[in-house]
Amino acid sequence: MASVYLDRARELRSLIDENAAKTDGLPIPQETVSALEDAELHKVMVPDAVGGLELPVNECIDIWAEISRADGSVGWCLMASCAATAYFAAWCPDEHIERMFSDGVPMSAGQFAPNGTATPDGDGFRLNGRYSFGSGINHAQWAGAGVFTTEPEGVDPRFLFAIYPVEKAQITGNWDVMGLQATASYDYTLEDVYVPATSTFDMFDLTVYRGGPLYKLGVMPLTAAGHAGFAIGVVQRGLDELLSVARSKHRMGDATPLAQNDRFIHEIGELESRFRAARGWLHETFATAERNVAETGSVDPMDVILTRQATVFVTQEGADILRRAYLLAGTDALRSGGLQRAFRDIHAGTQHVFAGPGPALELGRALLDAAPDNPLDA
To answer: Could you write out the DSSP letters of every residue in 179-248?
Structure first.
């Protein structure tokens, strides 16, 4: 079954790329969004119980990579929607499912950093807050937000994820950026928005109401998977574009094209090796995490750390690879096209918290804590 959806993603690459070239940084056109929905690619991580496809995590990553290869902005919005929709399908009770999935699997958007508050009101909460980076919010049907609950003095607030129909958010714009331009990752505000408690879940106290073992992994690995797919696809596109440039490009004063220059050929081999190594480790960590939780029924904290750090690594390593590709392509990389877009998009991706230094610190500490006195006992 999975290969069918991967094939569908590949079949959409030309359409997505052509629309990206035509719109030149404007929000993703509806034709592209509709094509993703028609191919059911917005369902890949969503539980089967609500109409999703519930594919294994590495297959989701590969599908997001194929879409990101066509256009990083489209891949970014798709993976963000898949993850957010999956959250609320897996971790909310039936009352919420009846609201959010009554007309099928929707597309979702939103920022889940706790930039707002949730004040108890009857069977729900009143949300207030200001948010940024609502990627895809202009074409989504549902939008989310991270909030801290307001509690009596001496009671610790809870960190909730909440979701609501997108029209309840006040979209304020503010997306003039170098990369991921077409994501329309607008700022938005919530002012006294009522959300039933059943349309929220506690970040640190998840109940899996539906779906298989994958959803026991929690917010961090499932979110990391989307960022990993984005990075893989964008880096692949940049390397593809560099090969295309090399076939015909002559450096000033050179009699032969780059493709016949041994130094350039060696660089290509090195960049491809680095990319495949990062991608391979990424797939290995996610496969291990999914297998472990399926076999044991519980989450290994090291799997959470490794999936996050493998995602950071493939993103940061990918950015370095594309910086080198940009230099190797010479002035061709200055002009609008796939390589320039990949270069800008991967660097935008490096600014996200899921590409930050935190997981490497966690991994280093975990390794030190587990290290035996005798290295041979490891």
So the answer is: SSGGG--EEEEEEEEEEEGGGEEETTS----SS-GGGGG-HHHHHHHHHHHHHHHHHHHHHHHHHHHHHH
